Amino acid sequence: MSLEGAGRQRLFVGGSWVEPEGGYYGVVDPATEETVGWAPEASRDQVHAACAAAREAFGPWSRTTPEERAAVLGRTARIIGERFASYAELAQAETGATTGTARAMQVGVGAARFRRYARVEPAEWAVAPQINEAGPMGKAGVMGALAVRQPVGVVTCVTSYNNPWANPAGKIAPALAMGNTVVVKPAPQDPLSVYRMAEALEAAGVPAGVVNVVSGRAVEIGEAAVSSPDVDMVSFTGSTAVGQRIAEVCGRDMRRQLMELGGKGAAVVFDDADVGSAVAGIGTTFSFYSGQICTAPTRVLAQRGVYDRLVEQLAAYAGRLTVGDPRAAGTVVGPVISAEHRDRVESYVETGRKEGAVVVAGGERPPYGKGFYVAPTLLADCTNDMRVAREEIFGPVVCVIPFDDEEEGIALANDTDYGLIDYVWSGDVARAFRVARRLRAGGVGINTVGRNMEAPFGGFKKSGVGRDVGSYALHAYSEVQAIVWPG
C-alpha cells in the first residue's frame, strides 16, 4: 500500500513505495483550508535513485512490443474508471475544482488519455526511394529508406498544479507508449492525485522502474529530476520563467525538451461577431479552473463597434456566476490554489486600477471566512502596454482592449511575448480564417474555445517548445531514426 498512517503518502521509486527522507508536508484544500493529506518530501538522493531506476528499466521496457505497452495503458484506464469516484473526490480536495471539473476534466480526461495511447499506431513509415548516380559513394543505384520512431529514453515529467490528472496522463501515457520510462515530479500543491495514478499503473502491471513519482516543495527536488545524468528528456508544463531555467539546464547536455509554458490568449472580436457566443467563450476564463489555465482568452481585443456591448455583456455574465464551495451543486467558480496565489491575482487587479483600467465587474474578495476565493473580474479600457495585458495573471481576470480595424487587431494580438492559443470571433468565416493564419500562436479557435484533442498543442515564442496531444505526442516522445539500404 502507498498510504501509511493518517494519509501519509510514500514515494514511488523503482516499483516500491518508499519512505521520504525529507519527511512530509500538508496538502491543503483551497476551499476549506483543511489538510487533505500528507505528501512526501523526497531527498536529492531519492530523486537520483528514481532516475537510476528508470534508466535500468528502460532497456527491457523499450524492447517490449507496442501491443504489450498498449495493454498496460488500457488496463490503467479501466482501473482509473473503477476508482473514479474516490479519485475525483481527492482531485477536488487538492485543487478546489468544482465537482463537474474534477470528474469530467480532471479524472475523466486523465483516463481518456490512457485509453487514447492504448491504441497502437505505426512507428515507421516509408520514405520515397532516391535514384543515385555513380560517384565517390559507390555505384549508381536506387536507395530505399525507412523512418522509424525510437524511444528517447528516460523522461522527467514536471507537471502543473491546475490539473493533476490530465496533465501528467498526457505526458506519461504517450511516453510509455513509445517505450520510454518516466520520472514524474508533480506540482507541490496537489501531488497526491499523481500517486493515485501511479497506483493504477502499478495495478495494471507496469514493470518496476518504468514509472517513478517523487514529490517535494524544495527547488532542489525539481532541479535534481531535470539535471540527473540518467535523464534524456524533460517534459514540463508551467510558467515561462521556470521553463527558461529548465531549458538552460537541458541545453548544457543537449537534452531533449517539450515545454508547454505560459499564455496570454488574445480573443479578437470583430463588429460582426455573435456577441453571445463570444461572451460565453471568453467567460470560461472566469469559471474554468478559476482562470488558472494557460489557454484562457484573458486578453480581449474588441472592435470599437462592438466594444461597449461586449463589455456590458461580459460584466453581466461575470456578475451572474456563483462563487463558492466547489462541492455545492450551483457553484461555477471555486477557489484558486493557494492564499499566495490569491494575493498575486489580487495584486494584478490593483495594478490594473493604478494603470488606468476600469474595474467593471469583481475586483473585491468574496466575503467568505475560509477558502482562497477571487471574484470574476473584468477590466475595461485597457491598453496593450499595461502589465495586466502583458503578463499572465492565471486567475479569473479578463482585460478588454479596443481596436479600430483588422490590421490593428492583428498587430495588438501579436504584440505579446506569448503565443499559445488565440481566438477569433467573426461572422465572416473567410476573414476569421485569414486573421487566424496571421496570428503568431500555436493554436487559434474560430468562434469557439473548444479543442480538438487530436490537433497539435503547443506554443510560439515564450509559450513553449514542441507539440503534443494525439499522434503529435508520439513524435514528441520519440527520436526519428533513418534506415537506408540499396534497392
From TrEMBL:
Residue ranges constituting the Aldehyde dehydrogenase domain according to the UniProt record: 17-483
Cytoplasm listed as a keyword: no
MF GO annotations: oxidoreductase activity, acting on the aldehyde or oxo group of donors, NAD or NADP as acceptor
Keywords in alphabetical order: Oxidoreductase
Domain of life: Bacteria
Gene3D superfamilies reported for this sequence: Aldehyde Dehydrogenase, Chain A, domain 1, Aldehyde Dehydrogenase, Chain A, domain 2
Record keyword Oxidoreductase present: yes
Signal peptide residues on this chain, from the entry's feature table: none
SUPFAM superfamilies: ALDH-like
Family: Belongs to the aldehyde dehydrogenase family.
Name of the protein in its database record: Aldehyde dehydrogenase
Species this protein is from: Streptomyces caeruleatus
